[in-house]
Amino acid sequence: MSNEKKADIVIVGGGAVGLFTAYYLTKSGAQVILVDQQREQLSCSHGNAGLVVPSAYVPLAAPGMITKGLKWMLSSTSPFAIRPQLKLSFYSWLWQFMQNSSEEHVTRSLPLLYQLNQRGSELFDSFYAEEKLACDYQKLGHLVLCKSDKRFKDELETAALGKPLGVEAIEWSKDQLAAEEPNIEIDTLRTVFYPGDSHMNPHKLIENLKLLLLDMGVVRVEGEVCSVQNRNKKVLTVLQNGEEFHSNDVVISAGVWSDKLCQKLGIKLPLLPGKGYTLTMDNPSQQARRPIFFAEAKVVATPMGDSLRFGGTLELGEMRLHINQARVKGIIESIPKYLPTFNMSQFKGITPWCGLRPCSPDGLPYIGQCPPFKNIYIATGHAMLGLSTGPVTGKIISDMIAGQQPEIDLTALAVDRF
Ligand SMILES: Cc1cc2nc3c(=O)[nH]c(=O)nc-3n(C[C@H](O)[C@H](O)[C@H](O)COP(=O)(O)OP(=O)(O)OC[C@H]3O[C@@H](n4cnc5c(N)ncnc54)[C@H](O)[C@@H]3O)c2cc1C
């Protein structure tokens, strides 16, 4: 490009969503500038649990969530908590979340969330086959361990919701589990196997995807965007340091920070951070072949090459990348209950990672144009599924910008739905 300050499209935010958007746009022939703060701790995409999960079709806004959040507020180690904030936007989000936490909303959203995740999974398969990016990508399914009959019954009910969609769920006997997971001792009462899921090392994916994009001609700019302005069919993107970029279209994929940029455009985009933690153990004494979810504790253990990453917790509300040691302790304490050869002392010296998931009040992402602006697109709000649905989001935005009909009906994902 002769002048790097002009491009067809500027993308704000280079997490999984922004990077896959840049990938599909560039493949379609567009010139892309990707602006990101390039501070690893400011992206939720690096340290997450690495799952691609067509089996995760129940939205965050579901019956019982508010009750659980309020009940668990009193426990410092619980896997889910709501942290009240002194902001009107927090209470407005919570109100919308309560309105959406219904059976009807779950029934309506299941096919859409499944479609997003399943298409995300297919695109990961073809992306991996084509680009052969080193990220430990494997499609071996994922296991759900239940230590109580009650939790197992709940899991079967959830699995039954996925059956009409085509999601396979198989109960494994203890012998089958031992044969399929020979390198790790597992303590469980009942086990459900979801064969359609995949996993990877998300940090490797992000870093290698950035390099691939450079090779493909994407211009990467380090900096913080302070405003996006619509200027007569063109868009002006302004950085904190005064740099300006002109483009035909802009995509805001700035994760949990996207609402700030929207506010400046006069657009309301309800988002709350949902903080979660992971701990990565290198060369564990025993290693799993596939991700293992501890159902009661809501903790997942994902094998990533020679490491095993444990992740969990959803703390809604607090916009701070601060490690709450009590929540981390909650994760660590749950591990020996399911994997008895692990103990608390093995986690000494492991630095926890935390990330802020961008959560919308109905548990569905925002994907599409940002009315009234036809050339500003939003791609965020993916909550627990931004890695899984990153490729499909990028593909949809790329198709829309190219004037093609997106492959998924976006009505329920409209940016102005609240
Ligand atoms: C513990 C945990 C486990 C998880 N496990 C999974 C999982 O297994 N599978 C899954 O699918 N999802 C998982 N998630 C969720 C997933 O990590 C997120 O949904 C996803 O990373 C969001 O990606 P994103 O691109 O929208 O945002 P981010 O990755 O947060 O990227 C946003 C980027 O925008 C940049 N930015 C923000 N504002 C500006 C600005 N003004 N100017 C320039 N740049 C800006 C930031 O620096 C950042 O790099 C997990 C999350 C957590 C916390």
Describe this structure in words.
This protein is of the alpha/beta class. The protein has a domain at 60-87 and 137-198 and 272-356: D-Amino Acid Oxidase, subunit A, domain 2 (D-Amino Acid Oxidase, Chain A, domain 2). The protein has 10 helices and 19 strands. It has helices spanning 16-27, 65-72, 88-100, 103-131, 149-162, 174-180, 202-216, 258-264, 325-338, 390-401, and strands spanning 6-12, 32-36, 51-52, 80-82, 142-146, 170-172, 190-194, 198-199, 219-222, 225-231, 234-239, 244-252, 272-282, 292-294, 299-304, 307-316, 353-359, 366-370, 373-380. The strands form 3 sheets. Strands 4, 5, 6, 7, 13, 14, 15, 16 and 17 form a 9-stranded mixed β-sheet that branches. Strands 1, 2, 9, 10, 11, 12, 18 and 19 form an 8-stranded mixed β-sheet that branches. The chain has a two-stranded antiparallel ribbon with strand order 3-8. Strand 1 (6-12), helix 1 and strand 2 (32-36) form a beta-alpha-beta unit. The two termini are 40 Å apart. Flavin-adenine dinucleotide is lined by residues 12-18, 35-37, 39, 42-45, 48-51, 224-225, 253-255, 257, 261, 276-278, 311, 355, 357-358, 380, 382-388.
